[in-house]
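Service request form, structural biology core

Requester: graduate student, group of Dr. S.
Request type: structure prediction, single chain
Budget code: on file
Notes: please return the result as structure tokens.

Sequence provided:
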Amino acid sequence: MDITINTTVLPHDDPDASLAFYRDVLGFEVRNDVGQGRMRWITVGPAGQPETSILLAPPAADPGVTDEERRTIVEMMAKGTYGWILLATHDLDGTFEKLQAGDAEVVQEPIDQPYGVRDCAFRDPAGNLIRIKQLP
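Core staff response, request fulfilled:
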């Protein structure tokens, strides 16, 4: 079997703020930006990796989501417990400094975890947790 991860989805509640974070702070390329106002779907990804993307999407835009589910999603986003992603870099400390200088909300400074990973964590403008681990 030959399967790869192509796109993962994270919610946004302010497309302009999310776009600025992923493009200007993380340095991702903008691959697509469709829709209007808060109903925008923005695809971003790391330069040189066109096969890997993050789709920043309006939360609960699916018509099958109930109003109660939509409220729960919005509440979870506000607490930062709804979406998250794990990224990786060869220069964790340098990446951390750039993100911190870009006013990203620091959740955890770089630390050696007891399970053998060195990582740090931030929140994007929608409250999504962005963990970044050190590659060997």
